[in-house]
Design brief:
By secondary structure, the chain is α+β, with helices and mostly antiparallel strands. It has five helices and five strands. A five-stranded antiparallel β-sheet has the order 2-3-1-4-5, covered by helices on one side.
Length: 184
């Protein structure tokens, strides 16, 4: 065996050891990975049932023409705001069907609000439940789908809309609370 081939084998062995160490580290710090680094659903059966709430926001840039049409409710497809609110609520309720490792939650409330600011529609989703795991993903999915519904309702007029700035704003309940009041 030549020196280069031997060195290559040593490097590979060291890489495999590092991967093993990384998997162990990940399984301890990333709850959705098992000891081998494979995806798994987290067991929440030992967690206490507590009241939980999450708020997420997002934006969709519409432009001045679309904002006027949405504000006047004069798009051919109908009530953009109303349809987007319903789409966001429905999506939040189906989060566990859309994101593979999410737990199915009995939501006690989902509220989607949309306001027009300049040329942008600002979407907010509040999700609440009493459960053993949080509702952050439900709030984020609600916002995302409401934005997509707005896009769908308006795409006949313009395809230059931009969806963005989707983020968790607050989380209450469980191990820790999270609150961001200012945007970076």
């Amino acid at each position: 065996m030549n020196h280069l081939h031997h060195q290559s084998l040593l490097n590979s062995t060291q890489s495999f050891k590092k991967v093993g160490q990384l998997r162990t580290l990940c399984s301890k710090s990333l709850s959705h990975l098992d000891e081998e680094g494979r995806a798994r659903m987290v067991d929440v059966s030992s967690k206490s049932v507590t009241w939980r709430q999450a708020v997420a926001t997002g934006e969709i840039f519409l432009g001045s023409e679309l904002v006027d049409l949405v504000r006047k409710n004069s798009l051919k497809k109908g009530d953009v705001i109303g349809v987007a609110q319903l789409a966001g609520i429905l999506a939040a309720k189906k989060t566990s069907e859309l994101i593979p490792l999410c737990h199915q939650l009995a939501l006690s409330q989902v509220n989607v609000s949309i306001r027009l600011e300049g040329e942008i529609a600002v979407v907010e989703c509040i999700a609440k439940c009493s459960g053993q795991t949080g509702v952050e993903m439900e709030a984020l999915v609600g916002v995302s789908m409401a934005c997509l519904a707005i896009y769908d309702m308006c795409k006949a007029v313009s395809r230059e809309m931009v969806i963005g700035n989707i983020k968790l704003v607050t989380k209450i309940g469980g191990k820790s609370d999270y609150n961001i009041k200012s945007t970076p």
